[in-house]
Design goal:
mainly alpha, 2 domains, two-stranded antiparallel sheet, 4 helices, 4 strands, about 55% helix, binds zinc ion
Length: about 140
């Protein structure tokens, strides 16, 4: 349902529906996308990096990275484009985190599994004495 909200970009009031920013900002963003797209579409600019595009178009870097992340500008078409890893901010072209962070994450998961396994093993070992005591209890 639409509700009145402040636009996170320009702070003006707007009816918040499907869009998360006001109509002016949507329009502005669309214009900026077209500017960036018109720039990278030129053959000589296909391999332009994000900082180069910022310099040439004046569009904010985070917005260009957002376009890449939203796959509006695709790295398969524009190989030098990238967006930021959600963990460390490194340039990436697919997924949400970079390879180094993926390896780290894998290590953390593995560690957690090891701890989990160790805990389960302990629980099984603990099960012995517990049974022993309960049997003893019954004997009394
Ligand atoms: Zn706005
Ligand atoms: Zn990373």
């Amino acid at each position: 349902m639409a509700e009145l909200a402040n636009c996170p970009r320009c702070n003006s009031l707007f009816m918040k529906g499907q869009a998360t920013v006001c109509r002016d900002c949507v329009k502005q963003e669309e214009e900026e996308f077209q500017t960036v797209y018109a720039f990278v579409r030129q053959k000589k600019n296909r391999t332009a990096t994000v900082p180069e595009i910022v310099r040439e178009t004046g569009v904010a870097e985070y917005k260009i990275r957002d376009f890449v992340k939203a796959k509006r500008l695709h790295p398969s078409q524009f190989p030098a484009l990238a967006y930021s890893c959600e963990k460390c901010g490194a340039d990436i072209q697919e997924g949400r985190i970079c390879e180094a962070c993926a390896v780290d994450l894998q290590r953390v998961i593995q560690k957690q599994e090891e701890i989990q396994n160790a805990l389960e093993r302990n629980e099984k070992e603990d099960a012995g004495p517990v049974t022993y005591y309960s049997i003893k209890g019954k004997e009394r």
